[in-house]
From TrEMBL:
GO MF entries: phosphorelay sensor kinase activity
Gene Ontology cellular-component annotations: plasma membrane
Domain named Histidine kinase: residues: 182-397
Keywords (A to Z) from UniProt: Kinase, Phosphoprotein, Transferase, Two-component regulatory system
Localization in the cell: Cell membrane
Superkingdom assignment: Bacteria
Enzyme Commission identifier(s): 2.7.13.3
Composition-biased stretches (Basic and acidic residues): 392-402
Protein name (Swiss-Prot/TrEMBL): histidine kinase
InterPro entries the UniProt entry points to: HATPase_C_sf, HATPase_dom, His_kinase_dom, HisK_dim/P_dom, HisK_dim/P_sf, Sensor_HK_Regulatory, Sig_transdc_His_kin-like_C
Pfam families xref list: HATPase_c (PF02518), HisKA (PF00512)
SMART domains attached to this UniProt entry: HATPase_c, HisKA
Organism of origin: Catellatospora bangladeshensis
Length: 408
C-alpha cells in the first residue's frame, strides 16, 4: 500500500516543536496516533501503557479504536503481546479477549499490527494499528510502525509526561501516612460545621426563631450525610473493597439511569438534562451500583462547572457494550490528568488552599466498582470545552463465544 511518508515525518517533526505536544504526555500520543492512522490508512489505532504488575490500560485511541479508551488490558493479553523477537508483528483477534475481538471485528478489523515499545530492554507500551484487509503487512507499513514506536519510546525514555498513570510505587508506610493526612483533612470540615451549628442551637436556642432553628438542623443533617458518605469511601478505599459484594446479571440501564437521576440531590437533579433513548439492549452488571456511580460523576461535573450550563446524561450502545456519559461545560481536564484522576487520593488541585474539596476517592471507587463488573470508565476533554465521563458495561444480551485464534 502507499504510505504517506512525507506527512508522517513532517508531522512528527512538528510534534516536538508545537507547544501543545512538545512536552509529551497524552497530547503527544494522541497526535502520534492520528498521524499513524493517516499514514497507514488504518481504521483505528491505540496505545496501551503497561505496568509493573504485567497488565496495562488503553491510554490513547483513535478512529474505530476510540471505544477502548480506558479499558484494562489483562495480564494474559500482555503476555501474549510481549513476545520475544521483532518488535512489530501480526496478532490475531483471537489472541485477545472475546469481547474486544468481537467488537473489533464488528468495526471492520481483521487483525492487529502490533509494535512493542521497549525502554532499556523492558516493554513499557503496546502500539496497535487495526487492519481491515486479511493480508500480510508490507515493508512500508512495518517501517511506519517502527518509526511511531521509536517516537513513543523516546518520549518514555525522556519521561516526557510519561507514564501517564502512577504505577503504585508508594510504600506501605507512605500510603498509610497519605491516608491519614487525607482523612484528617477531609473529616475536619464537616465535623467543624456540625459542631458549630450544634453549639449554636445549644447556646442560643431561645434567641433563635423557628426558621433559624430549622435551617441549623437542615445544615447539620446535610453535613452528617456528607460525613457518612466520606467515611464509607475512606473505609472502602482503605480495605480495597471498593465495590463490595456484587450481584451480576442483565438489567435495563436506561431505566436504572432514570431512577438514579430522579434520586439525585434536588439542586443537582434540577441541573441534569436527560438525553436517554427510549430503550437499549440490556447491560450486564450490578444495577444497584448505578446510583452511586452516577452520583459521583454528576457531582464532579456539577462541582467543576458553572451554573449556566446543564450537566447532560446520555446513553448509547454498540455491538459488545452499553454505555452512558456525563457531559459538562466546566473548567475541563488537562489531557495529562485524565488517567490520574482515578488514582486513590489524587487531587488535581492539591494543598490547603485548593478551591474544591474532596478526598480524591470518588473516581477511584467508580473505577474499582465498574471494573469489577468487567466494564471500564474513562474521562476525556469535551469538544468545545468541558469534560466527558464515560462508563461502559458488557451487553447483557450477547453470547460470549470464544473466536478461533491462530498465527498467520
Amino acid at each position: 500500500m502507499e504510505v504517506a511518508y512525507r506527512e508522517l515525518t513532517l508531522g512528527i517533526a512538528a510534534l516536538f516543536s508545537d507547544p501543545e505536544t512538545a512536552h509529551g504526555g497524552l497530547p503527544a500520543l494522541d497526535r502520534l496516533l492520528h498521524l499513524g492512522q493517516y499514514a497507514l490508512g488504518a481504521p483505528g489505532m491505540a496505545i496501551a501503557e503497561l505496568n509493573e504488575a504485567g497488565s496495562g490500560r488503553v491510554i490513547a485511541a483513535s478512529g474505530t479504536a476510540a471505544w477502548a479508551l480506558g479499558r484494562p488490558v489483562q495480564p494474559y493479553v500482555v503476555a501474549a503481546a510481549c513476545r520475544p523477537g521483532p518488535p512489530t508483528y501480526r496478532i490475531e483477534l483471537g489472541a485477545i479477549d472475546d469481547e474486544s475481538s468481537d467488537q473489533m471485528a464488528s468495526l471492520g478489523s481483521r487483525w492487529i499490527m502490533l509494535h512493542r515499545v521497549d525502554v532499556d530492554g523492558a516493554p513499557v507500551a503496546l502500539l496497535g494499528a487495526f487492519v481491515a484487509e486479511d493480508r500480510a503487512a508490507d515493508p512500508d507499513e512495518l517501517a511506519v510502525m517502527a518509526l511511531l514506536g521509536a517516537t513513543v519510546g523516546r518520549l518514555y525514555a525522556e519521561q516526557a509526561g510519561l507514564p501517564v498513570q502512577s504505577h503504585g510505587n508508594l510504600g506501605e508506610l507512605a500510603d498509610r501516612e497519605l491516608f491519614i493526612a487525607v482523612t484528617s483533612h477531609e473529616l475536619r470540615t464537616p465535623v467543624t460545621v456540625i459542631k458549630g451549628y450544634a453549639d449554636t442551637l445549644r447556646d442560643h436556642w431561645s434567641q433563635l426563631d423557628e426558621k433559624a432553628r430549622r435551617d441549623a438542623a437542615r445544615v447539620i443533617g446535610q453535613r452528617s450525610d456528607e460525613l457518612a458518605r466520606l467515611v464509607d469511601r475512606l473505609l472502602a478505599a482503605s480495605t480495597d473493597s471498593a465495590a463490595g459484594t456484587l450481584s451480576l446479571g442483565p438489567f435495563d440501564l436506561v431505566e436504572a439511569l432514570r431512577q438514579a437521576a430522579a434520586n439525585l440531590p434536588a439542586d443537582l437533579r434540577r441541573r441534569i438534562r436527560l438525553e436517554l433513548p427510549e430503550r437499549m439492549p440490556l447491560a450486564y452488571g450490578d444495577r444497584t451500583t448505578i446510583p452511586n456511580v452516577l452520583t459521583e460523576l454528576a457531582t464532579n461535573a456539577d462541582k467543576y462547572s458553572g451554573r449556566d450550563e446543564p450537566v447532560v446524561l446520555s446513553a448509547a450502545h454498540d455491538r459488545r457494550t452499553v454505555l452512558f456519559q456525563v457531559l459538562d461545560r466546566g473548567i475541563g481536564i488537562a489531557p495529562e490528568q485524565v488517567h490520574r484522576v482515578f488514582e486513590r487520593f489524587w487531587q488535581a488541585d492539591s494543598g490547603d488552599g485548593r478551591r474544591y474539596g474532596g478526598a480524591g476517592l470518588g473516581l477511584y471507587l467508580v473505577r474499582k466498582t465498574i471494573e469489577r463488573q468487567n466494564g471500564w470508565v474513562s474521562l476525556r476533554p469535551r469538544d468545545g470545552g468541558g469534560t466527558v465521563a464515560e462508563v461502559r458495561l458488557p451487553r447483557g444480551d450477547v453470547k460470549r463465544d470464544a473466536p478461533a485464534s491462530g498465527e498467520a
